[in-house]
Specification:
heterodimer, A: mainly alpha, about 0% strand, globular, B: mainly alpha, two-stranded antiparallel ribbon, disordered N terminus
Chain lengths: ~290, ~325
């Protein structure tokens, strides 16, 4: 029983980390651009598929770096061409646009790579089980944890200490003032958008190695990522981080005792948070809320 | 938006052109069974258009006339469908009672959830509405024994309606069923129009135009948004109940956020500043989707392209553009 519980907690942490990578990107875009990116899960899938294409040429390690960069670049281009003109309009338009993009990207994945699953095999060096008793502690899972921790730490250090990161945080609070101080807000938003999509692409490569690739692999992560943002509090990236892990572990623990409720439980958590603390765990009053 | 949009919405009401348009719409709707088969359609397609049109018009009560964005109206549409289906399957043979059950389930769900989120703003509000839709989706999806789970709720049939000695056979006669749907649609649309012309409706438009000013004038903004949200979910659940009757089936995907997105694009495509816009949008979208999904395996790309093209090139919708053409 203890092994089973540990197994599910560990699984929950892994899933939670995927939620975190998704939710951080979504939240950065939401905070600075006011866009709910419905296509975020599809960028994740693209990340996985690009890695699949690249591995024969540059290996897993190369693909882990290059694939998210390509996906991020695609995000950047889309932002500059079709999303930017919508910033001045009613937010309903940017939602609808990314909604349409989600359909298109998913269909492209289906057409190019087929609707059946494809395997994305991590190199043997990191794909070994580590402990016989705790069979779920595979090297690859520990590797996922390591990569996500490093990436998230780097992201927070970047946002806290670099000049660009400072501007992004300031823009989240008051974009108009940032603009008035002579900072190129358009460039800032493009970069921020690309960075958010990069995180989705990275999650795609990692998830591909864990669960394999299929055209709608990101769909199951999109809504939990929304919930992670709501639970953690809009405007607080640390809140998003905590929110992602909480709902990941909660869903996995529910699987042990009441399997069919594993998805519902994250919505229950959301409703409870909304009732008790409407701004979310670490959300600031008045931010978007 | 600017003050001209208020003018467009209201001052022209009663003009010669609008009366003509109104007449045209009702003549088209009343004669559908006569000409639709001739151009390759079928009557249940027309019923589907009416149902989605009603849901989109209901959504637009909130989106276009109160200025509040919901991306989760599939929840109330789906609750309406499930309420109606469950009632027919487990409780009664009366189609009318089943419709009432669907409306009750959807509207109560809307009123409760609306009360929970009404203080939230903008895209955050939209995100919460999506989340509520997914709650309903997962409940319908996981509660196998009661809702049929993934396969949907099957095994119920719409029943003929007995009004005293009069029997309306909506069960077997498609044309009679179409007129039944049209009658419900007409009643709902009539209520909607009356509400929008009332002082309450004007207040909603004031909130849309300038929420802060409305608040300064002493209007209880939150209460009005909540009422508008609830009314809007009422219309969505009526449409959902009718949708279950069209198919004799309630499908968990009717609760999914994809349907919510479809409803929003219908409203925008037809013109979300106009009363009839969402119906026009629903007609175009449902007919296109019906055609595209049978014509190509890549229908998703085409549907996605519809979204992108409408947003980038036709943000005012069909009626928004027609209005600008001087006659």
């Amino acid at each position: 029983m203890l092994t089973l519980v540990l197994f599910n907690i560990f699984n929950g942490v892994i899933i939670g980390l995927f939620y975190v990578l998704m939710a951080l990107g979504l939240a950065m875009i939401l905070n600075l651009s006011g866009v709910i990116n419905f296509a975020h899960g599809n960028f994740l899938a693209l990340g996985g598929y690009f890695a699949f294409m690249l591995i024969p040429y540059i290996g897993f390690w190369g693909a882990l770096v290059v694939s998210p960069l390509i996906v991020g670049a695609i995000g950047l281009i889309l932002e500059r061409t079709i999303i930017r003109p919508l910033y001045t309009r009613d937010p309903v338009y940017s939602l609808l646009l990314t909604f349409g993009l989600a359909f298109i990207i998913q269909d492209i994945c289906r057409t190019v790579w087929g609707s059946n699953g494809l395997p994305l095999t991590p190199p043997d060096s990191i794909n070994q089980p580590i402990s016989a008793q705790f069979f779920f502690l595979t090297g690859y899972r520990l590797f996922i944890i390591g990569i996500v921790v490093v990436t998230v730490a780097a992201l927070f250090l970047f946002l806290r200490n670099s000049r660009l990161g400072l501007r992004i945080r300031a823009g989240t609070l008051d974009l108009e003032t940032v603009s008035a101080l002579g900072i190129n807000v358009r460039l800032l938003r493009s970069f921020n958008f690309g960075l958010g999509i990069f995180l989705a692409g990275l999650a795609g490569v990692l998830a591909g190695g864990q669960i394999g690739l299929n055209p709608n692999m990101g769909d199951d992560l999109l809504l939990p990522a929304f919930i992670a943002i709501i639970v953690g509090g809009v405007g607080s990236l640390i809140g998003t981080l905590i929110g992602g892990i909480i709902i990941g572990v909660a869903a996995a623990l529910t699987t042990v005792f009441f399997p069919s409720g594993s998805q519902v439980v994250i919505y229950v958590i959301m409703i409870v948070v909304l009732l008790v603390r409407p701004r979310g765990l670490l959300g600031e009053e008045g931010m978007l809320t | 938006m600017s003050s001209t949009t208020i003018g467009e919405t209201f001052e022209r009401r009663g003009s010669y052109r609008d009366k003509l348009a109104l007449l045209l719409i009702w003549v088209v709707l009343l004669t559908v069974p006569l000409w639709l088969p001739a151009i390759g359609g079928y009557t249940s397609l027309a019923a589907r258009i009416l149902v989605f049109g009603l849901a989109a018009m209901g959504l637009n009560f909130l989106l276009g006339f109160t200025g509040v964005m919901s991306f989760g109206h599939a929840a109330y549409f789906g609750l309406g469908a499930y309420g109606c289906g469950l009632m027919l399957l487990y409780v009664t043979n009366s189609t009318l009672l089943a419709i009432l059950a669907g409306i009750l389930l959807g509207t109560v769900g809307g009123a409760l959830f609306g009360a929970l989120i009404v203080r939230r703003k903008g895209v955050y509000f939209a995100m919460l509405t999506i989340a509520f839709g997914e709650i309903c989706y997962y409940i319908a999806y996981s509660w196998n024994s009661f809702t049929g789970g993934y396969d949907g709720l099957r095994g119920f049939q719409r029943q003929p309606i007995h009004l005293g000695p009069l029997v309306i056979d909506i069960q077997n006669n498609q044309t009679v069923f179409y007129f039944f749907v049209l009658a419900v649609f007409a009643v709902c649309v009539g209520i909607m129009a009356l509400l929008l012309r009332s002082p309450f409706g004007r207040t909603l438009i004031a909130i849309r135009e300038n929420q802060r000013r409305a608040r300064f004038l002493g209007i209880p903004v939150e209460r009005h948004i909540w009422m508008s949200f609830t009314i809007s979910t009422f219309f969505a659940s009526v449409a959902g109940a009718l949708y279950a009757l069209i198919n004799n089936f309630a499908d968990p995907t009717t609760l999914n956020y994809i349907i919510s997105g479809d409803l929003v694009i219908m409203a925008v495509m037809g013109g979300m500043r106009s009363f009839w816009g969402p119906l026009i949008g629903a007609a175009i979208f449902v007919a296109l989707q019906d055609y595209i999904s049978s014509a190509t395996v890549n229908w998703m790309s085409f549907v996605g392209l519809i979204f992108v093209i409408v947003v980038l090139f036709f943000p005012r919708g069909v009626l928004g553009y027609l209005r600008r053409i001087p006659l």
